[in-house]
Specification:
This protein is α/β, with parallel strands linked by helices. It is 28% helix and 24% strand. A hairpin with a 2-residue loop joins β3 and β4. The relative contact order is 0.21.
């Protein structure tokens, strides 16, 4: 981390009310929570952003508005504009290989089929911090469903409660 440079905290999701509370939008849910209820989001560089200071660090929360598959367009533009080094990029996203209610972190790696991560990797590189929030896989629930349909489905009330618990425990540093 370069403490003297800003941090970009990106929550992945799809724009629009129809995608609210879907599994693919847990990144948006997380940055909304981290930025706080009183945050004033503004449009810039194909994203909604909020700038604030947290623990003496300049932080820019980001919700790309390019749809998931093109998230890297907004992330790359914001990183260049704010001169954010790759090690100060934190991306929060859904992960079907992690059970609901769990969270894992890593730096770098592959996309594991996640199109938002694949797009960011293509635009800025791979060696950034990823906070992966588990949404489970349809097979975990005995559902013969296409994973693409699963991620665009909404959480049930019990799952949503688990997700909020995970989000409440996210530590940025």
């Amino acid at each position: 981390m370069q403490e003297n440079k800003p941090f970009l905290v990106v929550g992945l999701g799809n724009p629009g009310a129809g995608y609210a509370n879907t599994r693919h939008n847990v990144g948006f849910m997380a940055v909304d929570c981290l930025a706080g209820a009183g945050a004033t989001w503004k449009n810039e560089k194909d994203a909604l952003t909020v700038r604030m200071d947290i623990d003496g660090r300049r932080v820019i929360f980001v919700k790309p508005q390019t749809f998931m598959n093109n998230s890297g367009v907004a992330v790359g533009a914001l990183m260049a504009f704010y001169k954010v080094p790759l090690e100060n990029l934190i991306v929060i996203h859904d992960d079907m290989d992690i059970t609901v209610g769990n969270c894992r972190e890593k730096i770098g790696g592959g996309s594991a089929g996640h199109n938002g991560i694949r797009s960011i990797d293509a635009h800025v590189g791979r060696d950034y911090r990823r906070i992966r929030i588990g949404i489970g896989h349809p097979r975990d629930f005995g559902l013969p469903m296409d994973p693409a349909d699963w991620v665009l489905g909404k959480f049930g009330p019990q799952q949503l409660e688990l997700i909020h618990g995970v989000i409440d425990n996210i530590k940025l540093w």
